[in-house]
Every structure is written in structure tokens, then in C-alpha cells.
Amino acid sequence: MPIELRDVVFRYGDRVILDGFDATLREGSLVGVVGPSGVGKSTLLGLMSGELRAPRGSIRYPDLPGGPERLAATAVGWIMQTTNVFGRRSVLDNVLLPTWIGGVRRRDAAAAAREALARVGLADLAERRCASLSGGERQRVAMARALAGRAPVVLADEPTASLDRANRDQLTDLLAGAADGGVLVVVATHDPAVAARCDAMIEL
Amino acid sequence: MSERRRAPFGPLDLAREGVANVATGRWLALLLALLCGAAGFAVTATTTATADRAIREGTELDRRGRHVLRGASSVGLPGSLDLSFCDGLAAVDGVEAAGGIRRRDRVRLATGAWVRLQEATAGMVGLLGRADVTDAGTVLVGALAAERNGLRDHAWATTREPGRPPERAEVALIPETPRSARLDDSLVRVVAPTGTADECWAEVDPARKAALAVTVQNLLPEGGSGVVVDFDPALSEVDPERDLREVPRSPVTPLGGAAVGLLVGMWWYARRQEWILYRVFGLGVIRRMGIAATEWVLVGAVPLAVGAAWAVLLAEPADHLAIGLGCAAAAVAAAVSLVVVGLWGAISSRPRPSTVLKGG
Questions:
Q1: How far is B264 from B270, CA to CA, in rounded Å?
Q2: Which chain B residues touch A106 with a CB distance below 8 Å?
Q3: Do B7 and A88 touch (CB under 8 A)?
């Protein structure tokens, strides 16, 4: 599912974050958002997801009527830098939850979650509490969550910031694999290794 | 990929989610539930005990005659009133019972013992707790006199007065109450309301005490000069009804409720990132409130109710009113806790966008 941003303006008080920003992000691509800290990478992701609203300009999903604020929650899979999961709940619960909330019967959501966990290599940890997982495993749980929900767009905000090299590479492979599968993956990152894997870049 | 069947995430699912959140944090939830239960116990125990004390105090004062208006000579002169006047007060609007009493000389019983004798109208006997005794000639006996002379209910006693033939009468015991204390060692003969009286008693409607005191004073023959009409001042020094009215205003109730609300609210705040995840997953405010309400019920309301019930069971209040006030206090505390957690939820459900986006 592509995203079109036209003449987008966004400010925090007097501070201009985006001023006449234009971009077209195509489905099936891994798009990197890079730039110094505080420049507005997370803000851009927030605008795409509908969590934030731009006072000027337009953000469109041409395949869907309306802007991002009309998106179903399952249309966007979020992978955040930290606190991605319900720590006290099982891995399976974490992965099935957004799909279940999105209106899929729980049993079917659980089946989809198990499939997604297998794809990210966490099938054996389905019943483990998320709090007992490593940082890399938690990010893969978040990735599985997006896959289980069949989200056409995945927004990842510094997903590799707290990961070691092996975990970073594993997660980047998963993001790239999702993009190859037709998902639009937008990843805000400082990591040159992640940026190097991207099909397109937005530099702020 | 497998086929998916649609099913809306409904109220039962929200409740299930709330239960899962409580179950997965069971030790902390248990601790919070215990604290909320303690708050419910404290609120209800305090309220029930205070109400029960006030009600018991009121009952005891009633037994002692705080609503009994007494008329007697201001200088203790015997025969200042008429028994017929005393009995007639029962007809005054607001007077629930009335009667008169007069002292007589001592009489000798068949055992040879001398006992004080008083004569009272049936109305007076009723005020002493034997409204069932109305036959003139029946002799009532105070507890001490009965014990000393071996008299029992329905026994027959013969009395001898100087210059009069012996009289045989059925005995009725005067129940031991503070009201009858002065008659402990006396015989009281029920008489028709004729002749003089030393004292008039009239039990009045508590709500009209002051007005009836004036009314009765005005009804006295010749304005009642030399006769004082008043309630026992010693029994008016405390006001249990006022204490009872103050019970619902006790600060303990809102404080207990606020404590429960804060405990649950702090628990939610400690898990604020989870609420953000729910939001990111597309759960709107109303549905998030459904989960929160389930958690509040399990961790706050139910333990509060259990604590309240335990407090009532332990307090064993004598009156349903005390139980009712205790339960009402628990309900108010629960409502206050709901308001507090509601405010807390409203605040914490509006995090800054950066908080949402960074997931922390």
C-alpha cells in the first residue's frame, strides 16, 4: 500500500519539523528515514500512522479512502525502539493481540500468530513471557505482530538501536523480507548498516 | 496463510483482556487487592462502629427515659398533681403514653417484711415496661423487693397497711430498667386515675419534645404554679442522633475511596506503556475503559466489597441502620475510587505524541 505525502507542514510550537515535505513511498519497498536526533524522524512516522496530524499538506493512502487517521489499526504494524511488548504476557498473546483486536476470531488470530512466530524464528518461545526475552527477540516479536496482522505498512522507529550486530542483521533481514513480500516498510534509523539495505531513503 | 473468520472484539473480550492483565500480574494485583480490601474494611468498620455506637446510645437513653416529660412539685411537695390529669395527657397530640404515681406509706407483707408502696395509673405502669398490666389492684414489684421477698410474676401477695384490712393481689414484676431504678425496692399498686399524684410522666414524640414541654406546662391547672415540667437534663447532654447524622459526612469514606482509586491508578500508571500499545493496536477510549473497568472491579471494587462485608460481620451491629450506613459508606468509597481512577485514566490516556511514538 503506497503513501503519498504532499506539502506537509508540522511544527512543535515554534520549532519547524517539516516544511513543505513531499514524498511518495511505494509498496514493496524498504524506505529508510535518516537524519540527526530530534530532526523529526519519529514525527514523520507518527504522521504516516495517523497518530499525529499535519496542520497543512496531505498524507494519502491512494489505495484507501481518507488519510492515515482513517486507517484500521491493523493496517499499520509498529515496531518501536523500546517497550514494544506486554512484558508479563506470553509471546503468543503479544503477537495475536492486534489481530484479535482488529476483529479476527481469537482462534484464527492465534493460528496466524504461530505462523508469524515461525517466520521470525520464535516458534519455540510462543508460551514464554515476553519479559524474559532478549531485546532482539522482543523486536522479532514486534515484527511477528506486524506479520500476523498482515499489515500492508510497517513503521519501525529505531528498531535496531539497542541490538547487537547479529540481532540487528536478523531484524533487518526480516524487514527486507517483508518488503520483498509487498509490504511498505518505513524504518527510521541511525544505523548505516540498516540504511544500506534500504531501497529508498528520506533524509531529514 | 490460513483463512480468518471475523468476530468483533466485544465486551466479553475486553473483560477477558482485563482478567488476563490481572492474572499475569497476580502478585502485585493480589497486594493491591489486599490494600483495597483493607481500605474497604477500614471505611465500613469505622462507619458501622460509629453508627452502631450512636444507635445503641440512643436506645439506652430511650430506655432511661430521655423522651419522658416529668412533672412534679418544684419543692418536692407530695400530691401537687392529679392522677386524672396525668393520665389525660395521653390524649394530647404527640404524647405516646402518660400516667401518674404517688407515694404511700409502707406496707407489711405476709413474710413480715416492710416494703415501700406506691400507687400508679395503668399508663404509668406502661411507661415502666408493663403495658400488659392494666387491672386495678394488681401489685407490681421492683426487682430488689422481689428478690428480698421471694416474689415472682403471677404469684399472689398479701399486704397489710395500718388501719386497713389485708389485701391480696396478683404480682407482676417490673422489668429492670434505668427508668424503674427508683422503684427497685417498692411495690406499685395499679389504681384508677383518681386522687392526687406526686409525679406525672408523659412519653412524647422525640421530634416535638420542646413544643410538648410548653404545651404540657400550659395544660397544668392554674398555670402549674409550683410544678416543674421538664425532661431529665442528664439524658439530654449527649445527642446520638446528631452523631448518627454526622456518620455519612465522615472523611474516612472519601479518603478510603481515594486510596483505592490511587492504588489502582498507580498500577495503571506503572503499566502505561501497555495502554499505549492498546491504543496503537486500535483500541479506542471506550474499549480501553472496558479493560480498565474490569481491572478496577477485580483489584479495587471486589476487594473493597469483601473488606466491607468482613467489617460488618465482625462488628455485629445491633441495628440494620448501622449495616446500611456501613454498606452505603463502602458504596460511596467505591464511587469515589471510580472518580479518582477515571480522572487518572483521563490524564494518562492523553500522553504526549512523543511518548506514544517512542513507546515509553
A1: 10
A2: 7, 13
A3: no
